[in-house]
Amino acid sequence: MDIPVLVVAGFLGAGKTTLLNHLLHTSDLRVGVIVNDFGKVNIDALTVAAQVDSLVSLGNGCLCCAVDPEDLDEMLQRLARPDGPVDVIVIEASGLAEPPAMVKMVLASANPHIRYGGLVEVVDAAEFTETRQTHPRLDLHLRQADLILLNKADRAEPGVLDLVRELAEGTPVVPTEYGRVDPALLFDPVDRPDPVERQLSFEDLVEHEQHLHAGYASVEFGHETPLHPRRFARFLTERPAGLYRMKGFAWFEGADEPLGVQTVGSSVWVTPAPDAARRTELVMIGAGLDARAITAQLDDAVVTADDTVDPLDLLSITRYQSR
Questions:
Q1: Does residue 323 lie within any of the structural domains?
Q2: What is the pLDDT of residue 21?
Q3: Residue 9: inside a domain, yes or no?
Q4: pLDDT, tens digit, for every residue of 94-140?
Q5: Domain match, 115 and 250 both
Q6: 247 pLDDT higher than 60
Q7: Short name of one Pfam family for this protein (predicted)?
Q8: Which end of the chain is more exposed for a tag (fewer CB within 10 A), N or C?
């Protein structure tokens, strides 16, 4: 199974490390963290010295690495192996980095065991006006992200949420406090015979219950009738505003077997799923989703008695399949 590589970006002080701490405390997955910065980064009460390839093993199975961006591919090669030590990899970009450059480095990796897991932009809601003045490319970064976490939402300036959503131009925006977001929004669970065990404090459990699911929702779609490839491809290229992730299985007219379909932001990948049922089962996750509109769009992709599907239409879907 491919290991997702998630890029977490954000201006200085936005809360990137706080988000990482939260993920390490609340996720059952083995998380590899690559810190694209110099200085000292506190992760789960441990300090990672900022020298290339320094490694620190954590009690919950996480692996944290401080690394120069020039050595990123080498680090990915070391972490992302079929028998490797992690289930997911998070790259914390420098507060002064250009996020698309980090994404390009991930996409350019020659490692066959990784896949791009999305670009998350962490935004400081309490200092948003000042940050835009100090960091004039912030507006562009909002549009380039796959998901925006509006952190410190409890101290947000008036009107910030609406302004960020306007600037984001359809990218889902999830308000957070102290970086608390459900890991399931970012990572898929991994089945292991011996799951990693961890112990949360009572405070952790209370915070998890109160905050994790705020700000986003999911929409489910299922159908027994095959989908029209071209109409579903149109849905993929014109995904609704606020949709961050889609995952599941789709059954297409003219296909020999069902296909696994996943999206993160604008990225789409398709995989063979010969063991899946011959039906469509999809889950869509995002912020501010219009469930009725999404369901109507997908209903429109279902093949009807009047449809004629050309065998070549399937290419509009299989083009997303890695070779």
A1: no
A2: 82
A3: yes
A4: 777 788 888 888 888 888 889 899 999 999 999 899 889 888 889 99
A5: no
A6: yes
A7: cobW
A8: C
For residue 253, being part of any structural domain is answered with: yes
Residue 323: which pLDDT band, with cuts at 50, 70 and 90? low
Verify that 284 and 241 share a domain, yes or no: yes
Mean pLDDT over the full length of the chain:
80
Q: Can you count the helices (H) and strands (E) in the chain? A: 11, 15
Residues with Cβ within 8 Å of 259's Cβ and at least 6 positions away in sequence, in order, are 249, 250, 251, 252, 270, 271, 272, 273, 317, 318, 321
Strands (DSSP E) contained in 125-239 are: 147-151, 173-175, 217-223
Nearest Cα to 4, choosing from 185, 197, 136, 208? 185
3-state secondary structure of 297: helix
- 300 domain-assigned: yes
The CATH number for 291's domain is 3.30.1220.10
Instruction: Report the number of distinct structural domains present in the chain.
Output: 2
Q: Residue 184: which H helix or E strand, with range?
A: helix 183-186
